[in-house]
Amino acid sequence: MVEFRGSDRGKAPMSNSLVGLQISDICLGRVTPALASPLRIGFDTLPRVDWLHAWDIAVFRWVNRDLAHPALDALMRFLSGNALFVPGLVLTALVLLWRGGPRGLVFVLMLGLAAALANEFVVEPLKDGIQRLRPYAALGDEVVLRVGRGNPKGSMPSAHALNVALMATFVAMLYRRALWVVLPLAVGVGFSRVYNGAHFPTDVLAGAGLGVVVGFGVLVGGDWIWRRWAPRGRLRGWVRRVPTLRNPPRSWHADHDASSGSGPAT
After folding, report:
1. How far apart are CA 145 and CA 64, in angstroms?
2. What pTM does this model have?
3. Which pLDDT belongs to residue 56?
4. Where residue 242 sits, what CATH number does that domain have?
5. For the residues 229-253, what does the mean pLDDT come to?
6. 89 CB-contact burial (10 Å; exposed 0-12 / middle 13-18 / buried 19+)
7. Domain around 195
């Protein structure tokens, strides 16, 4: 158990459900003994942002309960997960690989790499380390849960929000004209996680922010590695055809000026 010190001395201990909702949990979570012992971290060393905690709970209750409507129930369940998602994703990837040229290939491979890295090395470690209680575990029966329960201590960050934000980031950088379709979808998926009672708003915002950062970092970092190291090895022929990952040609037969590689795709 983390010891409260300083200004918290003498106060009654907080219940587990309330601890799970504190902003210190949002930032760092309930510190495990293995982490707290060598670092000697106490919640009094973290800034308290009570207004953000209050906003988080108030917005969750408003979206989850006050906005409830049968039509929204069906739509939000569909956005949170449906049987068409995986087949649609696979079909889109196949079409891009078949007809998308170098840009389609870069989009599918780099997005797949970014998603694997994000879920394995960002989402899961953060969920395990923070262990923030999901709304149904923290607020009890007042939560209207419209989807599966999931890990009761896996609220922060939202993996759904991270993945759709990751996809939207790649679309913005490689297929900007399609962003008008993907961006509302990403917002809808994030909103559905709160509406369905699976996450607090800050879980979704954190997941979306991480998705943007990881997506941008993987594509820009991959482009730097591609430009710097690929020409030195056996990939020289590929580099001549795809000189940049940030703005690859749309066709394998298109003449592409490598100097324009840093510009955004439109």
Report:
1. 8
2. 0.76
3. 93
4. 1.20.144
5. 84
6. exposed
7. 69-260
